[in-house]
Specification:
globular, Phenol Hydroxylase P2 Protein, three-stranded antiparallel beta sheet, four-stranded antiparallel beta sheet, single chain, 19% helix, alpha+beta
């Protein structure tokens, strides 16, 4: 259970707008666990989760600002990472 305190997560709405973001997270974070629920998708990982602007843009076929994730974001756990190219959460020990 030592990893439990190092876990982070992002929970996004389970809708058409969020699906490409979820696909991008899954692609860029192969260590992540993806759990689908009727109203949301929860993505858990140990240490860090990143949402890269470039990967989301490839999925949606247009420019994407990482701040747009806030429209679909339900909840998160971890220290927020934000800049022009990515959004994420990480845990520091």
């Amino acid at each position: 259970m030592a990893d439990a305190k190092n876990r982070v997560y992002l929970a996004l709405q389970n809708n058409e707008d969020a699906r490409p973001i979820i696909e991008a997270i899954e692609e860029d974070n192969p260590h992540a666990e993806i759990n689908h629920f009727p109203a949301m998708v929860k993505i858990d990982a140990v240490g860090k989760l990143i949402v890269r602007r470039e990967t989301v843009e490839e999925k949606i076929g247009r420019e994407w600002d990482p701040q747009e994730i806030h429209v679909s974001l339900v909840s998160l756990s971890g220290n927020v990472i934000e800049d022009d190219d990515e959004f994420g959460v990480e845990r520091h020990n």
